[in-house]
Design brief:
two-stranded antiparallel sheet, single chain, mainly alpha, 267 residues, 2 strands
Amino acid sequence: MEVIEIFGYVCALAIGISLGLIGGGGSILAVPVLAYLFSVNEKVATAYSLFIVGTSALFGGLKQHFKGLVDWRTAIVFGIPAIIGVTIIRHYVIPALPEVLFIVSDFNFTRRMAMFGLFAVLMIPAAFSMLGERKEKEKSGDIQYNYPLILVEGLIIGAVTGIIGAGGGFLIIPALVILANVEMKVAVATSLIIIAFKSLLGFFLGDALNMEIDWQFLVIFTSLSLAGIFIGTYLGNFVNGKKLKKGFGYFIFVMAIFIFYMEFFIK
């Protein structure tokens, strides 16, 4: 095993530790770790990331369920269109995309540039979501659903998830609060369930049917991330999670610039 691969597995553990410490966001690093440390292509990196993100979110979501914070009806209402969106993208759209999307003069705009470029762009609002303070919303009675907007929002988030291989919690949580009048703590917990099911079903109904999966590698990487969650949860008893979250937000900014530089200037 090469040194860079060992470092990659250490990063897998670090992803879980960050999830345990700050409660989310860490899995956004799965794609760059897979792409740059394990040298897998954009299709495989985003596919494996869906499995890793989905498994981690399922673990976190079940923990929140046992605390009584998950609204399962809301998870189903929002989750179904998101699952449809991500499955369509992973099963039909990604396999059909050519390696070179278009050419301008001597510049080849590739599928990898499109997928990782969008990923880098969306890392910026994800970073802002970690830097900002979440305002708690008072319970205001029954949850109300704006079904047309929920359908559109779910399809869009599912499509974005399918392209970049990330959970999109920074998009789902505000949508739950705004479109369904959900209390913030419930929105955060419920978003984990939505992320889990749309990511895992997108992976199994899309990628697992279209590509060869290295299950040994994927299970090892995911297991390290899950182990890291336990470590991070324990360390959270001694570390200020809010300060770490802000630091991690700045780190994601740096990673977004790094990905953009690697894809559009180096390659």
